[in-house]
Amino acid sequence: MPRLAWSTIDTVLLDMDGTLLDLHYDNHFWLEHLPQRYAQLHGVSLAMAQLELQPLFTDNAGKLNWYCLDFWTRELNIPVRELKLETADLIALRPDADTFLAAIQRAGKRVIMITNAHRDSLSLKLERIELAPYFERLISSHDYGYPKENAQFWDALQADIGFDPARSLFIDDTLPVLRSAQAYGVKHLLAVCEPDSRKGAKDTEEFEAVGDYRELIAGL
Question: Among the entry's GO cellular component annotations, what is one (predicted)?
Answer without folding.
Answer: cytosol
